[in-house]
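Reply to dn_fold:

You asked what the input looked like. This is it:
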Amino acid sequence: MFLRRVVFLAAMVLASSPACAQMKPAAMAPVPRPRVLRGLYVNRWAVLDDRIREMIGIAKRTEVNALVIDVKDDRGYVLYKSAVPLAQQIGSDTINPVPAAQIRAVLDSMRANGVFPIARIVVAKDPLLAGARREWAVQRADDGTPWLDGEGKPWLDAHHREIWTYAADLAAEAIALGFSEVQFDYVRFPDDPRLLREAAFPLAKSRPRARVIAEQLEYLHKRIASLRVPMSIDVFGLTTTDPGDMNIGQQWEQFAPHANIVQPMTYPSHYSTGMYGLENPNANPYAVIDHALKDAKARNAHVKHAPEIVPWYQDFSIGEPPYGPEQVRAQMQAGYDNDIRSWLLWNAGSTYTIEALKPEILSPAEEKTVRSKRP
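and this is what came back:
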C-alpha cells in the first residue's frame, strides 16, 4: 500500500506540470526484479528510431530479461519531456525528446513481455548542466573558469549536492513513468591526471574524494529507497582490485554500502598491459573477468550490507582480437564460474552479438552439462 501511494503521489506531482501534461505517468507498481538479471544497454537513439522494439524482441527469444535505457545521457540530455524544474530551466529535455505515447508504449510492451526496465541516469558528466550552472562546474585553479576535459567539455563538481538532487528528481520521475530500477553512472570525479594540478575544489574542506562520493551516494540511496526500488551504480572495473580511489573518488569499501547493486565495468580492453600478469588483457577475456570478480567478491566480504555484484561485459571491439561470440561468452563463463550469474552487456551503439546469447537462462547444473558436451 505504501509503495502504491508513493508512486501515485509522484505521478500526481508530475501530471500537474504544464510541461508534462501530455505524459500522464501511470501509477503502476514497479516490476519485480529478476533473481538472475541479464540486460542490454539501450541508447537514446535506439528509443528514438524505435529499434528498442527489436531489443524487446531479443529479450523475448533469448536469456536477456532486462534493458538499461538512457534517461539522462552523458551529454546531459533527458529522454523525454520532463516535469523536473531544473530540466525545464536548462532545456535538457528539448533535444529530440521521445513522445509521451512512445514512452508509454515501450514501457507497457516491456512489462507485458516480462522485460525489466532500468533507467540509466548519468550524474557528474553533464556538460549541458555544467554550462548552464557554471558555479557547479569543476573550476580551474588559476582563474576560476570551468575546467575542460580532453574533449573540451566541462564537468560537474561532485561536491555540489544540487547535481545529485537533480539526478534523484529525475529518478523519481522515471519510476513514476514505469521504470523499476535506477542506475546511476559517472558517480565520480573526472579520470584525468590534469585535474590534480589544474582544478580547485572549494567545497572539499580537506575531505578525500572517496568520502565525498560515498556521502553523495548515501544521499541518493536514501532518496531512492523512499521509492522502494533498487538502486544500482556503475563503477570503474579496476575498483574491484585497486585499493585506492584512483583519484576519481571510487573506492570499493566506501561506495559499496550505499547501493543495492554495484556494476563494475570490467571491459578487458580497458585493462593495461601487464594487469593480472596478462600481456594483452583484451585477448584474455576469461582471465580478466575471473581475476576482477574474485577480487570484487573478496572486497565485498568485508562490507556490511554488501551489495549484489552485476558486472558489465564488453560486446564491442577495441584492438585485437575483435570481439565476437567466443569473447563475449568467455566473459559470461568467468562470471558463472565465480557464482555471479547476472550480467549486463555494453555496446555504445546498442548493437549486440546475438549469437552469444542462449535461448533461456540455464541453472548452474544445466550450464555444467552444456560445458561437458563441448568438444
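Confidence is low (pLDDT under 50) at residues 1-22.
Hope that clears it up.
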